């Protein structure tokens, strides 16, 4: 009996040490299989670790925690339109349900289920964006023909003999050094993602499954069903396009030599420039929020950088994401420029933006 118990206790270590068979898939074929994996159902437990070092900017809610810390979550994924993700914290949990009737949020501390109605052209990051399948598909979709793809040795992750893939962006203006993805070679389901900053061998972001079941979860599991005593409410997403387009002028067609990319929802004063990993975003912040953000950046030791006409911007630098805050002369909205691009590119874009706002040729 003692020998049997010892064998059972040592079984996980024996399985982990067993050689992992390599896959014959090419890097391009594995990427294609990952991109096509959104129909693969699964359930599991994952852990994500992000270390950007961003200051706590106002009105970002739980985003700061996501971008600097460890996020543990259970997830049940039936399809792209039917899934559930539960974030586990020391004080409880918060759940997100995606259903055909919209998004539902359940908060343990308030014992409240909220249905979110309406659509939004953009949103802040949420915990489910860090799940290995969602993150891998998003990052690999940014790859351009010039980026370099190569295979990595296979690894056994959460019981999966996962094939490895490395993506190295070619454009030197991006801060992304390399992206490593491991996925089930049979169905393309990603099980681990690692992101390194350019010139660094220490990962800035690591997300992986610790436990994984590759079978469809029950429909009841991904359907919100509040128990007796749970509060239920509904909230309407604000008309972001109507709010923002009312207080800020349209942004220029080009900044820092990069063309503006269309964004959904008719937001003429929120724009993205460039493509792939070299893309950066520009958005206006109301004066109250913008000034609070400038104060937070200053308190965090953000460097002041000289822009055009003696204007100084606040530059927050991290190994992966950089942020520039610019307040035009005479007041008005504070502009936030951010992306996985070099600080010098954001400074160039900020100077061009100020010139354009003054009615000159950028």
Describe what you observe in this structure.
With 362 residues, the protein is α+β, with helices and mostly antiparallel strands. The protein folds into two domains: 22-236, Lipoprotein localisation LolA/LolB/LppX (outer membrane lipoprotein receptor (LolB), chain A, Clam), CATH 2.50.20.10; 240-357, Protein Transport Mog1p, Chain A, CATH 3.40.1000. 20% of the residues lie in helices and 38% in strands. The protein has seven helices and 20 strands. It has helices at 2-17, 27-35, 63-67, 132-141, 240-244, 287-299, 343-357, and strands at residues 42-51, 68-79, 82-89, 92-99, 102-107, 112-117, 148-157, 160-168, 176-183, 190-197, 203-213, 231-236, 254-255, 258-261, 271-273, 280-285, 303-306, 312-316, 322-326, 334-339. The strands form two sheets. A twelve-stranded mixed beta sheet has the order 7-8-9-10-11-1-2-3-4-5-6-12. The protein has an eight-stranded antiparallel beta sheet with strand order 13-14-15-16-20-19-18-17. The chain is globular, with a radius of gyration of 23 Å. The N and C termini lie far apart (79 Å). 36% of the residues are buried.
